[in-house]
Design a protein that fits this description.
By secondary structure, the protein is of the alpha+beta class. It has one domain (2-98). It is built from 4 helices and 4 strands; from the N terminus they run ααβααβββ. A 4-stranded antiparallel beta sheet has the order 1-2-3-4. Strand 3 (78-86) and strand 4 (92-98) form a beta hairpin. The longest helix is centred in the first third of the chain and has 22 residues, at 2-23. The chain is globular, with a radius of gyration of 14 Å.
């Protein structure tokens, strides 16, 4: 059952990202390569990026958020967390936060 619910969440996320990407072309055009898990761990270990927990705290994401997806990718030459959260009402919230200081992405 848990695996089935995870598959539904993944399908929902894929749809949200597809439609979300279509409405925010400025972000899609500026996203470069993403780091794999080892590169993320290395960046964390060297202090180049902050832990996800701290980034979420800085973004005022309260409680225990239901995180659907997290990536660390280059956006305009800087590392950013791309985070998809499932809100209690079933909608998704997409955050793009600079990985070294938690500031939100501003298109342009």
């Amino acid at each position: 059952m848990k695996q089935f619910l995870q598959q539904i969440a993944n399908i929902t996320l894929a749809g949200a990202l597809t439609f979300g990407a279509a409405t925010d072309l400025s972000v899609a055009q500026n996203v470069g390569p993403c780091l794999d898990n080892r590169a993320i761990a290395d960046a964390r270990g060297s202090g180049n990026i902050l832990p996800l927990v701290e980034i979420l705290r800085m973004a005022a994401v309260a409680g225990r958020p239901n995180i659907l997806n997290v990536k660390v990718c280059q956006v305009n030459g800087q590392l950013h967390y791309l985070i998809d959260l499932l809100k209690p009402d079933g909608r998704t919230r997409h955050l793009i936060l600079r990985a070294n200081d938690g500031s939100p992405y501003i298109a342009g």
